[in-house]
Amino acid sequence: MVEFALVLPLLLLVLLGVVQFGLVHHAQNVASTAAQEGARLGAAEGGDAGIAEQRTLDVLRSGLGVTAEGFDVTASESDEWMTVTASGGYPLIIPWLGGATIAIDAAANMRKEGFRSGP
Asked: Per-residue pLDDT tens for 30-50?
């Protein structure tokens, strides 16, 4: 029983680290998917940077909830490409770190759709 009392805090710390890793990995995947989805919609025929930013924010909100409000989304377009970036901080669940966050950054580029004249 004494051994269990000595090992339990270490096991709980490892479990907390594994859960935190999973949450951060999920947040990174949501941010990447949101940037890709926004760039895809913005690059579609009739799309623009405003539509791309709004779609990216919608996907972030659906995947991260209120945490998505801390993310900055920018979309830029050129003649051929739509680029969307999403960046923000994801809060740690470890209580004694005082509200620290981990930076989450994602970017996506999509070639614009539409008819292009030949050479």
From this structure: 999 999 999 999 999 888 899
